[in-house]
Specification:
By secondary structure, the chain is of the alpha/beta class. It folds into two domains: 45 residues, no CATH class; 202 residues, 3-Layer(aba) Sandwich (Rossmann fold). It has nine helices and eleven strands. Helix 2 packs across helix 3. The chain is globular and about 50 Å long. The mean pLDDT is 90. Bound molecules: S-adenosylmethionine and zinc ion. Zinc ion binds next to loops. The site of S-adenosylmethionine has 21 residues, from helix 5 and strand 6.
């Protein structure tokens, strides 16, 4: 049975409990507005996702990067597939990351930075009975993702939220992963600690992004790339089996570890 939103979500700021503010639609309790009584902030459901952000969004280095990212949001699938051609083809590039997740029937799975939701299609076509949860900071991505999931007949709990400030309770997920944005995060360590906080003890966490070799390809669009240091040193030392591997023919890296709590 699907878990209720109240069971999974918390206030992203104080991590305190959320309650239903008003019951607008008693038949669809999971879509009703939530409130954190401690912060006195309410969070509304857009019809397809809970919105935990008000006006905040992605930060860009310059106008060129902002323009490039907005084009990317509109034509995400063809553009990333083109980039994935360099990495051995879109199918194999996605497989190279996704096959590292240790997903079992009925698991609660969280992806931070869900984009168009393509990883959920990958997961749902391979494992039954998953409880899928995903979030993204960009409204445009959320819109595409919600319509894709609807078309693919995949049910997921969606949230517009910041991966560095997760709106989920402690220790609720069996699988937590991230693919493709951590290099841009302002506080990568915080994003990693948030993934750990919401994961159950023993969860295998997978974090992948591009290496500097890939970043250099996009200099022409985004301006000179910053040095990419895979944030493996930001994984708390008490985690188990921490590894860093190169993937996508050198264009990507993947960090893996098991949560120890
Ligand atoms: C390159 S896309 C990858 C999407 C998806 N993971 C995939 O594999 O297809 C990165 C996504 O991360 C999102 N993102 C960037 N910064 C974020 C943040 N701080 N919190 C949540 N999502 C973020 C972007 O909006 C974008 O949709
Ligand atoms: Zn709060």
């Amino acid at each position: 049975m699907a878990r209720s939103v109240i069971e999974m979500l918390c206030c992203p700021s104080c991590k305190g409990e959320l309650v239903y503010e008003t019951v607008i639609n008693p038949d669809e309790l999971n879509n009703n507005p939530l409130i954190c009584n401690k912060c006195n902030v309410s969070y509304r459901h857009s019809g397809a996702w809970y919105n935990f952000l008000d006006g905040t969004g992605l930060l860009f280095k310059n106008r060129r990067e902002k323009f490039f990212r907005s084009v990317l949001a509109k034509a995400y699938t063809p553009l990333t597939n083109m980039m994935f051609l360099l990495c051995g083809g879109p199918k194999s590039a996605r497989n190279e990351v996704m096959s590292r997740l240790r997903v079992k029937v009925g698991d609660a799975v969280l992806e931070t930075g869900i984009g168009y939701g393509e990883n959920f299609l990958w997961l749902a076509s391979r494992t039954e009975g998953l409880h899928l949860y995903g979030l993204d900071i960009q409204e445009e991505m959320m819109t595409h993702c919600a319509s894709n999931l609807h078309r693919w007949k995949i049910t997921a709990g969606l949230a517009r939220a910041d991966a560095q400030k997760l709106p989920y309770r402690d220790s609720v997920f069996d699988v937590v992963f991230h693919l493709g944005a951590i290099n841009l995060f302002e506080d990568k360590g915080l994003a990693i600690r948030e993934m750990i906080r919401v994961a159950k003890s023993g969860t295998h966490i997978v974090i992948a992004d591009e290496t500097e070799k890939a970043g250099r390809l996009f200099n022409i669009f985004t301006g000179s790339a910053e040095r990419v240091v895979p944030p493996v040193d930001l994984v708390p030392a008490e985690m188990k089996n921490i590894t860093l591997s190169t993937i996508w023919k050198g264009y990507g890296y993947v960090i893996e570890f098991n949560v120890a709590k």
